[in-house]
Design goal:
By secondary structure, the protein is mostly helical. Helix 4 packs across helix 7. It is elongated, with a radius of gyration of 28 Å. It folds into 2 domains: 89 residues, EF-hand (Recoverin, domain 1, Orthogonal Bundle); 90 residues, Orthogonal Bundle (Recoverin, domain 1). This is Defective in cullin neddylation protein.
Length: 236
């Protein structure tokens, strides 16, 4: 009758090492699953912010969304995120818009943490001249009252401040002009809006390359007249 084989004694240190490797492998697998973009996870994230209408994130949900990604609602990056989503109404994201923007190949965010880690990408779009031009133009239809063809002046001032206050040296004077002058408009139309951007990017702060015969809208001619009078008054 054959002798039973002796059981090999298990080395405790080997058991500990094996357990460590198994835990490491498990954590690695979990980490890979978390890092992989998942549309269902993105939809579930969106649903956290909806209330009466499950297909739309409304102002209250928007506030909680901003809190989760550690961004103030008034931060320009929220406008850039809306631009990537091609959102139609300020203060609202539909599920279609949310999925479109955050599943973009350059974004791929399905959790608040991933979006927080991606904020630099959105800020960098502001620094890219062509992207910023598109964001500026997008902002007009995004922010205006959809019942009106033009943007009311109070909304326009707020949006222009958000977009131009840090990048256009003449913005303080332009804001003053819109605030104080009788010639300042009560609404801004789309042509004026787009020309304000072009003016801010092409006309020197000393107005040396401005021409009265240029194709600028009357709004900007009036602003130049206001600014010249102000400077002449200061110099005298």
């Amino acid at each position: 009758m054959p002798r039973p084989k002796k059981r090999t004694a298990t080395n405790p240190s080997e058991e500990i090492e094996t357990t460590k490797r198994q835990k490491t492998a498990s954590r690695s697998k979990h980490s890979q699953e978390e890092s992989r973009f998942n549309t269902n996870r993105l939809i579930a994230w969106f649903k956290q912010y909806t209330t009466d209408d499950p297909s739309q994130l409304e102002p209250e949900g928007m506030e909680r969304f901003c809190q989760d990604i550690k961004v103030e609602p008034e931060d320009i990056v929220m406008l850039v995120i809306a631009y990537k989503m091609n959102a139609k109404n300020m203060g609202y994201f539909t599920q279609t818009e949310f999925l479109k923007g955050l599943s973009d190949p350059e974004v791929l965010c399905d959790t608040p943490t991933k979006l927080k880690n991606k904020l630099d990408y959105f800020y960098n779009l502001i620094d890219d001249p062509q992207s910023f031009k598109m964001i500026f133009r997008y902002a007009y239809d995004f922010a205006r009252d959809k019942d009106q063809r033009s943007m009311d002046i109070e909304t326009a001032k707020a949006m222009l401040s958000l977009l131009l206050c840090k990048s256009w040296p003449l913005f303080p004077e332009f804001a003053e002009f819109l605030e104080q002058q009788p010639k300042a408009p009560r609404v801004i139309n789309k042509d004026q809006w787009n020309n304000i951007f072009e003016f801010s990017r092409t006309i020197n702060t000393d107005l040396s390359n401005y021409s009265i015969d240029g194709a600028w809208p009357v709004l900007l001619d009036d602003f130049v007249e206001y600014l010249q009078r102000k400077r002449q008054g200061n110099s005298s």
